[in-house]
Amino acid sequence: MKNINRKNALSLLSKLDSASLSSEERQVLIDLKMLLLERQDLEDACMADLNSYEAWTVWDAKQDVLDRMRMDFEDEISCLSDADLEKTAETIAHDCVDWRMVDDSCCEAGNQRIASAIQEFLDEDSSLLRKRVENVAEELCWNIEDEGDGSLRFSQESPAGEDFSFSVSSDDLIRQVQEYANDFDISEHVAMWLEARGRVSGVPDAVTLVDDAKEIQAMLDALAEKLSEL
After folding, report:
1. Of 117, 144, 154, 212, which has the fewest Cβ atoms less than 10 A away?
2. 214 and 172 fall within a common domain
3. Are residues 67 and 40 in the same domain?
4. Do 68 and 147 have their domain in common?
5. Which residues pair with 155 in a beta bridge?
6. Where are the beta strands (DSSP E) in 120-200?
């Protein structure tokens, strides 16, 4: 617990969101503010310990986090709905930011602490990462389906009409997509379809198969490259 002097206590009190408090709590804060204002000598100031409060509930902390996310993390949060964004900001405000360390006397340092907490949360939260991956995939016309066994299926129709798809584990998702793109073999893909000609109708000629496999490789490379930016 850290005590703060009269000047800093008044500064913090000015940030408190009184609308979120009960009537009894609001009265306590009003009484505290009056005590602080009445005492002129710093030596005699009431030493208020505000850290016993759940700061994120009485301080407009969630709005601070939302503002910082919208300012510095536009790309990362673009896939989130308004409801998801609100929930994410509330989680970060409650669990990730030590509001005792956000000093109002140094706004930039405080903003940096908030931004660091946001970045750490976005990097580590797997559900948010998946939403960002899905957003990128949709931009590049890939469909994603949850196969129910911890894996995801990416699919897209190739220029020649193949319903091309591949599956990867949802663990370490980006790395696995990149590895699949790197390991895709045009010759093997063409050979697979040439071998299937007798069993599958509508298989195009060899030249078309080669050109189509090159297009699939380009589709995979574009997906892997875009995901590497997340």
Report:
1. 144
2. yes
3. no
4. no
5. 143, 165
6. 143-146, 151-157, 163-169
Q: What is the pLDDT of residues 96-118, one digit of tens each?
A: 877 666 665 456 777 788 888 88
Question: Which pLDDT score, from 0 to 100, does residue 161 have?
Answer: 94
At 56 the pLDDT is 43
Among the listed residues 170, 216, 163, the one whose alpha carbon sits nearest the alpha carbon of residue 189 = 216
64 plus 153 within the same structural domain: no
Q: Is the pLDDT of residue 222 over 90?
A: yes
Q: What percent of the chain has pLDDT over 90?
A: 32
Q: Which 3 state secondary structure label does DSSP give 222?
A: helix
Interval 147-157 mean pLDDT? 90
Phi, psi of 213 (to 5 degrees): -65, -35
From CA 142, how far away is CA 56, in angstroms rounded?
Answer: 39
Write down which residue in 93, 124, 155 finishes a domain: 124
Please say whether the beta carbons of 114 and 69 come within 8 A.
no
User: Tokens 């030590």 appear where?
Assistant: 98
Same domain membership, residue 85 and residue 38:
no
Overall average pLDDT of the 81-88 stretch: 85
Quickly count: other Cβ atoms within 10 Å of residue 113's Cβ: 18
Backbone angles phi, psi at 226, to 5 degrees: -65, -40
Domain hosting 120: range is 60-124
User: What predicted TM-score, i.e. pTM, was given to this entire model?
Assistant: 0.57
